[in-house]
Amino acid sequence: MESSNLSIFFFCCIFLISSGLIVEAQDSPHHHHRREKEETDDNGFRPAKLFVFGDSYADTGNVRKSLANSWKEPYGTTFPGKPAGRFSDGRVLTDYIAKFLGLKSPVAYRWMKLFGGKKLRNGVNFAYGGSGVFDTLANVLPNMTTQIDFLEKLINESVYTTLDLHSSVVLLSLAGNDYGAYLATGGTIQGLPSFIPLVINQLSINLKRLQKMGATKVIVTALEPLGCLPRFTGLSSYQQCNATRNLATNFHNLLLQQTVAKLNNDTNSSTFFILDLYNSFNTVLEQKGNPQGDLKFETPLKPCCMGISSEYFCGSVDEKGVKMYTVCSDPKSAFFWDSSHPTEAGWHAVYTTLKSSLGQLFQFS
């Protein structure tokens, strides 16, 4: 592996630093919430709520409106029809997991004060685009530990209870921002083999904490094939993934698999479950669609929304407000929306490949 290539790889892993993202954590509301009764039946676990932690693959609106492209056109054009804080043209991973569980997508943490009450019955989404298990951007993004702190505060305030967490599903999304931040703040290529286990170890600490807080069903994402993101495939005119970058991804995922297996073994439980985004992304990209054949992506590595040059991004405008990006005619024909994130159709295709394994986990479909 060439050091220069690896440096570019890990520097680019952080999705949102290049867009100048700055986020403020919001205080929790002080209203109370009536806990719903846990629902179970003969077919298996029926979750009462969904609690979400992580980054832009799961964020549904925690980033401040003025500080991220996810609140700018053309984001949100497919759903809900205007920018709404999702890093896509429409729905993201959280929305599809909620759909599978028979829940509405949980309210974003920042909007609890405005959309509390009945909205809280579905849980809360604490994910912030650009975050990681460690601090990723000058300590202004709530890392995963801080996000879990937010939930703990809500429990302490009796907005939720330990029993709420016990009867719910927890989703943790980790898409690679820690590695970009590591090199951007002075880390070296030579130090990466020692740093990647630190990321997994911190994730393990977070997982143990959630279990101690009462979580019994925790889904954690495997790292998607980073070498297939458009920011890298652009070097081959969006024709092929970068194998070197995907090898690095595999190292992360191997350690994750070993860690989750050990956690379940040590606690004699099946609390933790890996959502295999690596293989599901690859399946859709290789087949240029989903296995069912109802979604097709002719050039799956090419994003729908692109800056007109390397200095611009999807959603960028110049000082006069002129659009500095292009958008494909039909987002449903593209797997990727921008340089790092799938379209709604892309996430739908990934979801269809994961549905059977989710069904086995929860023993219902």
Structural class: alpha/beta
Q: What is the H level of CATH, i.e. the homologous superfamily?
A: SGNH hydrolase
Strand content: 5-15%
Q: How does CATH name the architecture?
A: 3-Layer(aba) Sandwich
Name the strands of the widest sheet in spatial order: 4-5-3-6-7-8
Assign the CATH class.
Alpha Beta
Question: How far apart are the first and last residues' alpha carbons, in Å?
Answer: 43 Å
Main sheet specs: 6 strands, parallel
- The helix count comes to 10
Average pLDDT, to the nearest integer?
86
Please, how many domains? Answer: 1
- Rough shape? globular
Helix and strand succession? HEEEHEEHHEHHEHHEHEEH
CATH fold name, please? Answer: Rossmann fold
**Helical residue percent?**
25-40%
Give me the count of strands: 10
Keywords: Hydrolase, Lipid degradation, Lipid metabolism, Signal
GO molecular function, one term: hydrolase activity, acting on ester bonds
InterPro entries: GDSL, SGNH_hydro_sf
GO biological process, one term: lipid catabolic process
Would you give an account of this structure?
- The chain starts with a helix and ends with a helix.
- The chain has one domain: SGNH hydrolase (Rossmann fold, 3-Layer(aba) Sandwich), CATH 3.40.50.1110.
- It is α/β, with parallel strands linked by helices.
- It has helices at about 5-10, 95-100, 145-155, 160-165, 175-185, 190-215, 230-235, 245-265, 275-285, 345-360, and strands at about 40, 45, 50-55, 105-110, 125, 170, 215-220, 270-275, 305, 325.
- The chain contains 10 helices and 10 strands.
- The longest helix is centred in the last third of the chain and has 24 residues, at about 245-265.
- About 35% of the residues lie in helices and about 10% in strands.
- The relative contact order is 0.15.
- The strands form 3 sheets. Strands 4-5-3-6-7-8 form a 6-stranded parallel β-sheet, with helices on both faces. Strands 1-2 form a two-stranded antiparallel ribbon. A two-stranded antiparallel ribbon has the order 9-10.
- It is globular.
